Amino acid sequence: MSSSPVAGPAPTGPTSGSDTVTTGQPAPDRSRRPERRGPRIRPVPAGARRGPRPRAARYWPQYLAISPYYLIFSVFMLFPVIFTVYLAFQRWDGVGDMQFVGFQQFRFLWDDPVFWLSVRNTLVIWVLSTVPMLCLALVLAVLVNSTKRLTAFYRVALFIPSITSLVAIAIFFGAIFSNNFGLINAILRALHLSAVPWMSNEWTIKLVIAALMTWQWTGYNAIIYLAGLQAIPSELHEAARMDGAGPVRIFFSITIPLLRPIILFTVVISTVTGLQSFTEPQVLFGSEAATNPNSGGPGQAGLTTLLYFYHQAFDNNDFGYGAAIVWAFFLLILLIVVINWRLVQRKERRP
Amino acid sequence: MNSQNRERLRGLSVHLILMTGVVISVFPFYWIVVMATNTSQDIYRYPPKLWFGDNLLTNIQHLFDKMDFFGSLVNTVIVAVCTTVLVLFFDSLAAFAFAKYDFPAKKFLFGVLLSMYILPTQLAIIPQYEIMVQLGWLGTLQALIVPAAANAFGIFWMRQYTTTSVPDELLDAARIEGAGFIRLYWHVVLPCVRPALAFLGIYTFIAAWNDYILPLVMLVNPDRLTLQVALAQLYAGHSTDYSMVMSGVLLSVIPLVLVFTFFARGFIADATKGALR
């Protein structure tokens, strides 16, 4: 019966509708039982009074119940996403008339050095944060899993960074990595090392942003890994230990392969969120307009693609170009996720 | 004896490494308090002060001179509370329909819901802005609340829970008493799904409280900002007056972290469940 997923009058005929619902069930799924009785008690007399009705109509409370999501989704998500495609082929400042320009926005994008700089920045920050984040998370998870004491405490303490406001943490990182008065440089000075101009060097700017992301998400990923580790039967580890495998051997030959689906999950999630870094550089380096050569910090070293998109769309009011950037960027994320997926999958097949 | 000692040493080093992780995790909160309770001169000094000072009230006074903290706080609370209440209601209602009824096009509709997970909000944000302009909602709080009032994740999460933990027998019994869809939802389903609602509520509240990019785009009126946007602007304008800015960070972050710590154990268990599903 669910093979005709089009809402509206069912071709089976309105009167036989309730019968096909009860008898045509392929699986004795428990969740279907209430539905069988529901229509039998209420809508049938109503249908008898008002004559035959389309089958879908007697489920109006259910459709009404799910409608808020679909209404909000259509108006604020589906339509806007499609409209963004349309916008990418227009020139529009948000106020005047739109002007169709064909592929001109994308051609401009292709030749725009700032766009490619922002893509490079985004990728570098993503690698600098994701790799240490996931490795550290795995180590922490294995360690928590190896002990019985204080585990609840560790879980809460490691999880807290992930619920902390990104704006607050960006301000905090800005303060401790400050060139002149930051805590980090004070520590370096106490160790008789020379201070580092964190906020003005092309690489240290990226390093600070990556450190921020690593701080925020390592614990979250560790908790996810921990859940996966706890699902691995301890007999497996026991058996390996009996066979004389050391902890390192066990880690690489048993833990990692069994954890692969979860590692894949965390890689995809950190790719999608890591590539969308925006708040960090936006808060750290102010909100200068795109025309400012220092937007995204000195040398534009912290200008991520989303920040560049924001500047073009909402500081320059260049909605057409903004739409082109954000679509190109979405396709790039999709490509990277697919490549990641393939890489992790292929490793999985190797024994 | 010797191997026992080695075992103990190993356990100790595990806890030592984990404690280092914990210290790194919570150090920012400690340091935020240190900066917020000292003067900016103390922070700039070398060596810097490492312990709490007694300048918090003065810093907060400066903060209140520089930004409308209470106004932003009220706006943030309104947005977070309204979003949470609406999400809890709409998502659990839709989840009930999806979990316990079979209606035409259900599979198709649920498939749409699942596949739309992946669309990033940034793809929609320019037209969303334009829609808010047309509705006259730009700069108002409903521009943030209405688009977030129902979401795919919450419906998916609540549906899983409703399917397994609302007994069909109970629904049938209530139906025989003559209860309709809404009464079933209110009197049978809601009491059963409370634990799942708790997780979804905390999650939604935190996400709404911390949201930045959407308020940044939509709240064009400088008198009507959420805390996150107001703090970022304060920092952009007064980035050298650390102690004042940090007192704002402290006031906006610490309550949420404390409340979270209170609910943390159940929340973390649910969060991993939600992630691994």
Automatic annotation (TrEMBL), chain B:
PROSITE patterns in the cross-refs: ABC_TM1
Residue intervals of the ABC transmembrane type-1 domain: 73-263
Membrane topology of the entry: Multi-pass membrane protein
GO biological process per UniProt: transmembrane transport
SUPFAM superfamilies, sorted: MetI-like
Residues of the signal peptide: none
Domain of life per record: Bacteria
Keyword Membrane: yes
Transmembrane parts of this sequence: 12-33, 73-96, 108-129, 135-157, 184-209, 244-268
Keywords, in A-Z order: Cell membrane, Membrane, Transmembrane, Transmembrane helix, Transport
CC terms in the record's Gene Ontology section: plasma membrane
Cellular compartment(s): Cell membrane
Principal subcellular localization: membrane
Stated family: Belongs to the binding-protein-dependent transport system permease family.
PANTHER family documented for this protein: ABC TRANSPORTER PERMEASE PROTEIN MG189-RELATED, ABC TRANSPORTER PERMEASE PROTEIN MG189-RELATED-RELATED
Protein name per UniProt: Sugar ABC transporter permease
Source organism phylogeny: Bacteria, Bacillati, Actinomycetota, Actinomycetes, Kitasatosporales
